Request: fold
Amino acid sequence: MSAIRLTAPLTDKDIEGLRAGDRVLITGVIYTARDSAHKRLIELLDKGEDLPFDIKGQIIYYVGPTPAKPGEVIGSAGPTTSGRMDAYTPRLLDIGLKGIVGKGQRSPEVIDSLQNNKAVYMAAVGGAAALIKRSIKKAEIIAYEDLGPEAIRRLEVEDFPAIVVNDSVGADLFREGVEKYRRVK
Amino acid sequence: MRNISVDTIIKEVRTLCMTAATTLGADVKDALKDALKKEESPLGKDVLAQLIENYEIAEAEDAPMCQDTGISIFFVDIGREVILDGLLSDAINEGVRQGYEDGFLRKSVCHPLTRKNTGDNTPAIIHINIVEGDKLKIRFAPKGAGSENMSALRMLKPAEGLEGIKSVVIDAVSAGGGNPCPPIVVGVGIGGNFERSAILAKESLLRPLNEKNPDEELAKLEEELCDELNALGIGPMGFGGMITALAVHVNITHCHIASLPVAVNIQCHADRHKEVEI
Reply:
C-alpha cells in the first residue's frame, strides 16, 4: 500500500483527505510533548498565558527520546502511550492542534474532540525508535529544558512514518482492525 | 569461599545495561520473524517488518531499540560461598548509573509524587536469592512502562479455578489493546500471595522464548492461553491481526488454602533480557 505525503503544519484540507488505516509520511515541523509538558501547557492556558509555540495547525508527537550521542541530532525516538495525555488533549484540540502522533488507543472524549475540531490521531510504530530516529533531521528544545526527555522539542522531520488511527469522521482503526481479525466465538 | 569484588559487579552491570538496550536476543528476533510469516493483516505485516528493521538498525548503530530504556530490574542468584567486599545493591545501582550515562540511555526513574527525575535511572529494582555454590548470576531486564502499565493482579476465590485464571489474563490483554506495544510476551504468576505472584510473573518473562516450560501441564496451559490471546485479533500495535502474543510464560507456587492470587505482567516486543555469571 502506498503512503500519503503530509506536510506539517496541517490544513483542514489535509485532514479531510485522511481516513483511519491510511499510511502517511510526514515532512515539516512537529513538536514533542508528553506527560509533564502537557501538564504545564494546560496550566498556562488556565492562567490565560501564551503557549511556548503557536499550536494552530500543528502536530504534537508524544515522545521522550534517549539522549543524542555526540554528532547526532536526537537519540532513539519512538512514540509513547497516548492514553496518558487523554485528559489534556481536548483542550489543545479546541485551540487549534490538528494532529497527534503517539501509540495506543484514545478515550471517547478525545475521539469526539478530534471529530468536532477536524483533527486526526495517528500512531507511529511503538518500539521502532531507532528506525524513526532516521526521519528526524533537526531537533531543538524550545521549552521546559528542566524536564529532560520530557522537554518540548521542535523537530524537523522528513518522511516520518505513521498510520491514521482516528480520523475526522469518527472512524477508529483499532476498533475496526480488531473486529476484522477477532476469532473468539 | 570465593571473593568477588564489587568493582567486577559494577563493570558487568554497566555492560548488561548498555547491551540489553541495543541488542535483542536471538530468541526474540526469531519470534518476530516467525510472527511476520504468520501474520495476515497488511498493516500488521508492515509493523512487524518495521520492528525487524528497527532491531537491525539498533544493533548496527549501537542505538537503543526503544527510547524507553526502562526501569532496571535485576534477579540475582548469589552463591552462599561468595564473599563480597561491599554492598551488592550499591554495586548494582552504580553499574546502572554508569551504564545509563555511558550508553546514552534515557533516565526514566522519578519520585512517585513530585515526579522529579532521579537523573541516573536508579534506584534499580533488585530481587536477591541465596543459592548453593560460589557463583554470582545476574539476570537483567530493562522494563518499559508502556507494557508494565497494562499489567494486572487479582486475588481470585479458589472456586474460580483455572477458568478464573484464564479470564484474568485475557481481560488484562484485552484492556491493554495496542498500548503495551504488541506483539507482547505475557508473564503469569499463579499462587504465593499478593507480592509473590507478581514477582513470579515478572521472573517468568526472563525465560528465553525458545525454552519450553519444563512442567508439561504448564506448557500446555501456556500454549492454550497464547492461542486464546491471539484469537482476540488485537494484532501488532493493536491495528488488528493474527499475532497479539509471541508467548505466554507461567510460573506457579503454593498459596494459602483461601487464596488464588494471579498476576499478569506484560512485556512489549522489545523483550530485552540479558544475563551474566561471575
User: Anything to note?
Assistant: Helices of chain A lie at 12-16, 35-46, 89-94, 108-116, 129-133, 173-181. The first strand of chain A starts at residue 4 and ends at 8. The mean pLDDT of chain A is 95. The radius of gyration of chain A is 16 Å.
